[in-house]
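Hi everyone, sorry if this is the wrong subforum. Our group has a chain we'd like a structural model of before ordering constructs, and none of us has done structure prediction before. Sequence below.
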Amino acid sequence: MIFTEAALKGAFVIDPEPASDDRGIFARVWCEKEFAAHGLSSHWVQSSISLSRRKGTLRGMHYQVAPNEEVKLVRCIAGAIYDVIVDLRPTSPTYGRHVGLMLTAENRRSLYIPKQFAHGFLTLQDNSEVSYHMSEFYVPSSARGIRWDDSQLGIEWPEPVVIVAEKDLSWPQFRLNG
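Answer:
Right subforum, don't worry. Here is the predicted structure as tokens:
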């Protein structure tokens, strides 16, 4: 696997290094030793998938607060998404900034999302499916979010947003500390 630190400290893009032959390819997408060698959490307590049937479906921007802050490892296993993370760590030099990247079934990339980051994505194809590994259990009372269309964040979604859950429409605007 190839680990590339994203523009937000602690977040990593992870590319598989596939071995190929006439049968196809084989690639490792997670290895406890390789994650540990990069100082990354490798303890997962929950895995989930989401299937979005229509292109233009937006999910996010979600996170959990203490004591249930979670690390996520996200990968698109069918279709394509534009994945976005926002640094919510008040003491971070990248506080309030975001990074977006394409995760597709074809590129097989994963995104490692540290604690105290909001996460969301927009589907770029019909029937896009996303796989998540989380370091903490989902706790509804710790669930939070920020607006996906917050002008202060300035996220430029590459396609029109067509479907958004009522819950995601109700999140507050992001507020920079200070």
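For your construct planning: The mean pLDDT is 95. The first strand starts at residue 2 and ends at 5.
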